[in-house]
Amino acid sequence: WLFAKKGPVEESPVKLIDFGLSVRKQEGKPLTTPVGTPFYVAPEVLSKNYDLSSDMWSVGVIVYCLLGGRPPFWGSDAQILKQVKQGAWSFRGPVWEHVSEDAKDFIRKLMEMDPKVRLTAEQAIEDPWVKHCAPNASSEHFGKHIVESLRSFGAQSQFQKAALNVIAEQLEESQVHELKEVFLEIDTNNNGTLALSEIRGALEKIGAKVEDLPEIVHSMDMDDKGSVNYTEFIAACIDRRALYATG
């Protein structure tokens, strides 16, 4: 995505870009070239027999990432592709406790294994969640999810924290993309580290109050420099259950 012009975000149209792998689909003729990014590719693409409905699977993955803060699949490229082929994904984790059933049902209908049953673009636009719920959705659940992750990290042993920091350094960009965006948003002075005041300010914006935030932030500050760097933030927020399941 790219902003069409410079200036205030709310005044600039958003343009979809990068059509390097796009083709003109001929009516009645399936596509057979397996292309795409592992996280977003549809199962039938891997079978080399697909059509426009494969794009709707990718839309489902994007919605999953936006609402859940992480992709529905996890691991190496080979592990991810295996999960995609099996349709092995779920709404696991505390963040999904705060996501409506309408939203989850929308994702299910987009990430339907059978392309013939999967929502079309026209049907997706008319889905009840898109028309009535999404425009009024709150982002508070995402703040709660981050807080829960931070608290969980604080309860880890020093050895576990150190191990998570090492793991965080090895993760690929695609695995931490959403958390990177959160880090950049919180880092209001753009110095590459998060001060306690910045983290508190970000949580206050979404109405989340954390009494023990100083202790939590201190537990994240592994190098005792008085602030949280990027790796320390990722280590504290990564989905540890998914990480351990694929480790």
TrEMBL record:
InterPro entries: CDPK_Ser/Thr_kinases, EF-hand-dom_pair, EF_Hand_1_Ca_BS, EF_hand_dom, Kinase-like_dom_sf, Prot_kinase_dom. The keyword Ribonucleoprotein does not apply. Residues 1-130 form the Protein kinase domain. It comes from Alexandrium catenella. Its cofactor is Mg(2+). One of its GO terms (molecular function) is ATP binding. Residues 174-209 form the EF-hand domain. This is Calmodulin. Keywords: ATP-binding, Calcium, Kinase, Nucleotide-binding, Serine/threonine-protein kinase, Transferase. Belongs to the protein kinase superfamily. Ser/Thr protein kinase family. CDPK subfamily. The keyword Transferase applies. CDD domains: EFh (cd00051).
